[in-house]
Amino acid sequence: MSSVTMNCASGGACREGTQKRRKRLRGFTVLELMMSTIVGVIVTAAAVPVVTSTMRMMRLNSATNSLTAAISATRYQAIMNSQIYTLALTAPANTYVVSNLGAGTASRAVPIPSQNVAINGGNGATYTFTFCPNGMVYGAGGACPGPASPALTLSYQSKQVNITVSGVGNVTTTHN
């Protein structure tokens, strides 16, 4: 122990140890910083396609959920109020209007989330569902019974969802 204290007292060994500690505490080398930056860039580049695909599906699912909820809610209104209701979906504007045919009232046009989602190819058309007080669902015409309800296809970039409404009001979605 006395030799260690003597070296520290003379200043030789203690200074060398202190200088080594200071050198280790200075930070990262340029090579270490470059390597960590390259690893970060590679991880980010690998994540971009996954995030893009996820965003695409989220936009499509949002529009699908909004539309299927509107169809179900309109059917329930028809049953609850014992009135004939229609839901008119306008494709180029991506909006829908709910009308109570018995009372002669209509809601304001409600936009579907994500305006970039194409309905049945984005053609300029209106698709109408007629909801009867007994829960049955038909197509355009506003009469019960009426023609079969229209089939809908929502698409966004390379993703697609088919929506069908059965005569008894069951809404089914299938992803392609």
- Briefly note the CATH topology name: minor pseudopilin epsh fold
Examine the secondary-structure arrangement and name the CATH architecture.
3-Layer(bab) Sandwich
Give the N-to-C terminal Cα separation.
Answer: 79 Å
**The CATH top-level class label:** Alpha Beta
Percent of sequence in beta strands: 15-25%
Uncertain segments are: 1-6
Radius of gyration over all CA atoms, rounded? 33 Å
Write down how many β-strands occur, each being a DSSP E stretch of 2 or more residues: 10
How many helices? The count is 3
> Which series of helices and strands comes N to C?
HHHEEEEEEEEEE
Mean pLDDT: 86
**Would you tell me the structural class of the helices and strands?**
alpha+beta
State the CATH superfamily name.
Answer: minor pseudopilin epsh domain
Oligomer: single chain
Main sheet specs:
6 strands, antiparallel
What can you see in these coordinates?
This protein is α+β, with helices and mostly antiparallel strands and 176 residues long. The protein has one domain (33-175): minor pseudopilin epsh domain (minor pseudopilin epsh fold), CATH 3.55.40. The chain contains three helices and ten strands; from the N terminus they run αααββββββββββ. It has helices at 2-10, 12-24, 30-81, and strands spanning 85-90, 95-100, 105-106, 110-111, 118-119, 126-131, 137-138, 152-156, 159-165, 171-175. Strands 1, 2, 3, 4, 6 and 7 form a six-stranded antiparallel β-sheet that branches. Strands 5-8-9-10 form a four-stranded antiparallel β-sheet, covered by helices on one side. A hairpin with a 4-residue loop joins strand 1 (85-90) and strand 2 (95-100). Helix 1 packs across helix 2 (12-24). The model is unreliable at 1-6 (pLDDT under 50).
